[in-house]
Amino acid sequence: MADTKQMSTLDPTHSTKVTIIEEGTELKGSMTSTVPVVVRGKIQGELSTPALSVAPTGVVQGRAHVGTIDSSGQLSGEFDAETVRLSGAVSDDTVIRAKSLEVKLVSDGKMAVTFGETKLEVGEAPVLQK
Q: What is this structure's pTM?
């Protein structure tokens, strides 16, 4: 489950609309959402959303064009974002382009950010290609 700070801004009980891909759900194909997307299951394909939250059980594979990524799950593919906050796994051959990148390590020793063969581009705002 995403951390409390994350969910307070993305929790549907706080009258903010979100799209939730629940654990046990797998979506393949293209998805465009005008509201934040919370992934507890798996998305494979192309994704466009203003904010993406990936829970520890969540997996996003493919291409994503987003404003903000908060991930404690697994990312694989190509990601263009303004802000990226990672505390999960990034698979081999993954490209992350972002204006800012924050990596959080959890002190309990059970979770850590894991980078495979990854390309990170941090600095200037990414040019979102369609």
A: 0.74
Burial class (CB in 10 A: 0-12, 13-18, 19+), 5: exposed
Residue 1 clears pLDDT 50, i.e. is over it: no
How far are the Cα atoms of 17, 25, 57, 129 from residue 116, in angstroms, in the given order?
A: 34, 25, 18, 24
Yes or no: say if 95 and 79 are a contact pair by the CB < 8 Å rule. yes
Q: Are 57 and 74 in contact (CB under 8 A)?
A: no
What span, in angstroms and rounded, lies between the C-alpha atoms of 32 and 96?
A: 19
Residue type, 84: V
Residue-level pLDDT at 118: 61
Q: State how far the Cα of 47 lies from the Cα of 105, in Å rounded to an integer.
A: 26
DSSP structural state of residue 35: S
Q: Are 36 and 49 spatial neighbours (Cβ–Cβ below 8 Å)?
A: yes
Tell me how far apart the alpha carbons of residues 10 and 73 are, in angstroms, rounded to a whole number: 16
pLDDT at 121 over 60: yes
